[in-house]
Protein 1
Amino acid sequence: MEQNKHHQVVIIGGGTAGITVASSIRRHAKYLNVAIIEPADNHYYQPAFTLVGAGAYNLEKTKRSEKSLIPPGVSWIKDAAKSFDPEGNSVVLSSGDTVTYDYLVVCPGLALEWDGVEGLKDALGKDGVCSNYSPDYVEYTWDCIQNLKKGSQALFTQPPMPIKCPGAPQKIAYLAADYLRKKGRAGDCDLHFLTQAPAIFGVPYFARALEKVMSRYGINTHYQTNLVSINGAAKKATFEDSEGKRQVLDYDMLHVTPPQGAPDFIKDSPLAGEGGWISVDKNSLQHTKYANIFSLGDVCSTPNSKTAAAIRKQSPVVVRNILNMIAGKALEEGYDGYASCPLTTSYGKVLLAEFIYGGKVTPTLPLTPNRELAVYWWVKVTGLPLMYWHYMLKGYEWFFGHNVDYVEDKSQPASEPVEKTEEPEKKKAA
Ligand SMILES: Cc1cc2nc3c(=O)[nH]c(=O)nc-3n(C[C@H](O)[C@H](O)[C@H](O)COP(=O)(O)OP(=O)(O)OC[C@H]3O[C@@H](n4cnc5c(N)ncnc54)[C@H](O)[C@@H]3O)c2cc1C
């Protein structure tokens, strides 16, 4: 029998954003009646998938049961949201039940569009085609890296933006190259990074350092080219450039980052704005049309880098703004676009890119931000997972602020040895 239930706050999605928001609300306002709508049994710590694909982390350690993460006092509606009636403050679920709310938080993440590349679904998981973007295939990435033979050709692809963790497609290329280097086999495979973007990274300050990492490993970088089809049996991948010109490349290993977009039930809803993403104010995270709806995480329209790190800064703003509305106070415009991307440039070192809207560099620690540092490898492998499970998902919020007054020190080179080139100014002077 179909049922109707009411909760003061309803959260759609029990992923990174949903659990963080629910826990935080419970810490600030225990009296609120909160429910999470989430169909999945398991929750994954996706940022560690890069490490799993590189054989540096165990997949089991990334997984927790959803049940164990639902905060005490919060109701879990184990169902999927199907459609919205924002005028009537209700959500219809796949089961046919309806849930009504005073405040709605929408965070079902984004959809991985495996069908967006012809032949990908059939090819995935065998004959060298792998992806760190799915827990079902991420371990196969590590098999593929270890199976690289002398003379093998490995391709690493990056689709059009936005995608979650825009650094992830290149991180695995660095780790594959470093694996070969550590085995004393640097240069015996042909590695290619093929991206639809015009640059290696969206923030020029970090892009300059990352270009050096690419050239240090001898990874061939191809810009503005997009994977459009795979012939898994023949091990051939077809790419299309910005002018529609196609080229076919052979591969022994193909690491695919699938195209990504808003989930269909969001795209088709009255909440969707441009591109199908939930349309919110980029600072307050309030819906641009429906005042009692908020959104954060991968599904919302904010032009930040879609990362768990961004959610850590978005969640307190959403929670405070719901409480502000309940108290009849003005909303705060608290989210500045912060995101961070720990770029695993080798086994043992990470370049931690932290930035806000407009590509402004905003480090948290007083360390040179474009350097590859061992301490950040520790942060990535040990510190951040601990912080995720035991701090962020438990609704704790305090952390050192990122430095919005940081002035880029353009003279700093990447820390690893790179090919020395004479600076143009010095050349002129000589
Ligand atoms: C390979 C990889 C590497 C990454 N590396 C990093 C990194 O180094 N640093 C970093 O900060 N971030 C990283 N990320 C990104 C980060 O994991 C995501 O940005 C973050 O998990 C997004 O959180 P979310 O809550 O928006 O979505 P998710 O965590 O994906 O959760 C969405 C939830 O909504 C549920 N859902 C879906 N549809 C419905 C529905 N109809 N009704 C109800 N619930 C629904 C899903 O089951 C899921 O549980 C990485 C991601 C990947 C894949």
Protein 2
Amino acid sequence: METKTRNTCLIWHIFREDDILIYDDDQIHLPEEKNPEILGIEPIRFRETAYPEGEVIKWAEVTAETEPPEGMKFAPRRKVLEVLGEENFASSGKAYHFMDWTRKNLFCGRCGSPMKDSEVERSRICTHCDHVEYPTISPAVIVAVEKEGKLLLGRSPRFPKGRYSVLAGFVEPGESLEDTVKREIREEVSIEVDDIEYFGSQPWPFPHSLMLGFTAKWKSGAIRIDEKEIEDAGWFSPEEFPEIPTTLSIAGKLIGHFLKNRKN
Ligand SMILES: [Zn+2]
């Protein structure tokens, strides 16, 4: 399947619930220079946001009953993003994040009055009590744990069939990132880790995470999985790797980093 990389500033990200509007052909691409009006779609709301660096993010939200224009379809966002390429993935994720945050902050959580976009910063302000809501961002850690040349990989029931990945979990109030790394690994597979090192980060708009990648080393304990969270986990040497995520995700990048170090 061919993926088109285009000028992301021209692209309209049009969402119907959690699906995104794409052309209905064998090439997955997004509407460019075609705003909802030209496409004959009436959005519930839309925004065109220009950033100082020159980036422009355009999104629209349509009702659940909206039919796609001829030659187009609404497709599951995660599936589309997997083949969109890194740049489109980032702009589409940003568009979804703002769309989703806006629709969840139409009314004030304190007094129930309507909210509106701030004119001076990226926030929503209550028209009655001045309560301010900033975009929700949920930090989560994702960790590549190594033991004697093997990598810890687990399988969530939510993954596509056969897929394994490094373990991840949300940061809880009051935790440092290092606390979260230790707690998540302990909770999910009952092992202790140390030598925790920061690797890198990636916005992950499903729906509003920020993934913070770490590497760590096994310290003690044998794998015993929490069956509520994962259905299988184990230590894998590069030769016996199962199916893993693409390098579009930080999970894939962490695994790639492990493999590269093993070869050197
Ligand atoms: Zn209010």
